[in-house]
User: Fold this.
Amino acid sequence: MAKLGKAKLMAAVFRGFEAAGCTVTPISAPGTHPIRFVIEKGAVHQTVRVYIWNLTHGGGAARPKHEYRIQITSGIRAFDPEPDGITLILGWSEQFGVFAAFDASRRKSALGASPSIQISEATLNRARVIGAAVQDKGNGEFAVAVRPDRLLGYVENQSQAHAGDVTAILTPPSEDEPSDDPDDTVLEDAIQGRREFRFGSTEELAQRPNVLERLAALEREVAKLRPALASRGHNRPPELLPTETETLAGQIEEAASSARTELQNPEPSVAKVARSTKFFRWISRTAAAAKAEAGKLGQKLKEKARDRTADFIVAGGLFGGAALWEEILNLINLVTNEVLKWLQLL
DNA sequence: AACCCCGGAGCAGTTGAGGT
DNA sequence: ACCTCAACTGCTCCGGGGTT
Assistant:
């Protein structure tokens, strides 16, 4: 697979931000590594320092086939953090069309001669399909893979991602005015941690199985899409873009499993559950709006979203006689309602 | 020609399955 | 329950080959 020079690697990063509507202004001299630049988009104004290498196979037949890595070269002995900004440690894979991103906050100490940092093929593949994926490396570190179109989302949610939660990256950023829907406020308060949450009341504990049941039903329904996708994918080279159905199904699975895992903890992360729910509401809303006004509003949403998945929902891809999707959307609404009930009980 | 990147391999630590 | 050992993973280093 093609290896890219530093200039091309940097260009891939810039393209990702620009595709998300950012303006990118380099502040370090051309040809330097790491490169430093400023990204701007609306209220976002962020200084970014990027270390980047090609993502290659682990090396040699002795290494597992699924192991990919970056090797820290260029004589870099330590990752200098960007003061008042953000530091990215990236690997670009031309093969998968995704970036691997490693946690700079966990790699502050001096490096060896040319250490490598690994990520699995499965994580890269999953990110290729759904936009972002996370891999528990088992030592408390989470490696993240993101498609270029989600790079801005990664920058905005870096700490969450390296804590193992990429649902915020999967939810396209809302460009709307702050919503006056009280349910949105409940979710947003939970995501931002604006109030205390008390676990363990009888009502709260009784509500959890209701949420879990709905989540399980949703996951079962989404899983029914698998056989159709598998047969379709049978003769398809892996480097081809995934279908929107795969993308959306994968994203729903990711969000559902993230919420389910949390709710099984005695003290779940309310923010994680709320982020998954926010994603479900986004799907539900986009689909409802598209259905109600297939023409005008749909087009408006589409332009606003600048997102392949939104595009797909709005374009009516879900409603082409797919009764399965009707049921999935129904279950998404049920899950959302149960989560909202649960949040009120905390 | 010099430099740098990455393919490849060795080694050490950890984990978990299977045997006793 | 304990031990053994293979498999897995992370880290390091060397050297060939590509790039500048």
